[in-house]
Specification:
Elements lengths: L6 H9 L6 H9 L9 E5 L7 E5 L3 H7 L5 E5 L18 E5 L2 H11 L7 E4 L5 H10 L4 E4 L3 H14 L4 E3 L18 E4 L9 H6 L1
Parallel strand pairs: 5-6, 5-8, 6-7
Antiparallel strand pairs: 1-2, 3-4
Helix pairs in contact: 1-2, 2-5
This protein binds S-adenosylmethionine.
Amino acid sequence: MTTPPGARLARALTIAGQVIDPQWHRAILAVDRAQFIPDTVWVTSADHPGYYVPVTRDDPDHARWAHEDYALATQVDDGDPAGGPDGEPGWGKLRTSSISQPSLVVAMLQQLGAVDGHRVLEIGTGTGYNTALLCHALGEKAVVSAEIDRELARVAVDNLARAGYAPTVLDTDGAGPLETGVGTGMYHRVISTVAARGRIPHAWVRQV
Ligand SMILES: C[S@@+](CC[C@H](N)C(=O)[O-])C[C@H]1O[C@@H](n2cnc3c(N)ncnc32)[C@H](O)[C@@H]1O
């Protein structure tokens, strides 16, 4: 029997008591998080606070982090790294996209209370990992995800296709009025992996 791609992560989250709902346990087992992580990720610099240092796939930490409970910056400076304090290429100043920490991802999904037959709108596709978990649990036709950065949306669609899913991914501002193709008020749940500053955008309320 082959080991499911998410076995290591699922075991870690189970031992830590974070995965309780079997539908999300099955999804974490089935989806390979490493497939959603780009060749370069960024970590905060210990020597230069306020800067992000690139870590590439040839670094063993890159593979380890994929299967453990780490959030990783997957884009800095909107995809055009500004450089380090002494002009080091590839260093970044501002984290502009990330793959969320798996324990947070599963906590949010468990709180969502989505069950088979529900349609879910996700705001903040990022890498598409969370989208893939939703697709595994609810079916790809039940999932629509919005990503404000066009290039990230394109990469997420590719990542999802490689994992075997083709949900609707919109390259649009999820905080604005959304043309999701399903119709306003047609979702059972909305999940946002984007911070809503101040108050929840009314566009999200209108979708449920
Ligand atoms: C924390 S990351 C998403 C993590 C993602 N769910 C994953 O599994 O990789 C947040 C993402 O939301 C996107 N974003 C920020 N504001 C947004 C908005 N108003 N509408 C849609 N996407 C937005 C960012 O570009 C970023 O890619």
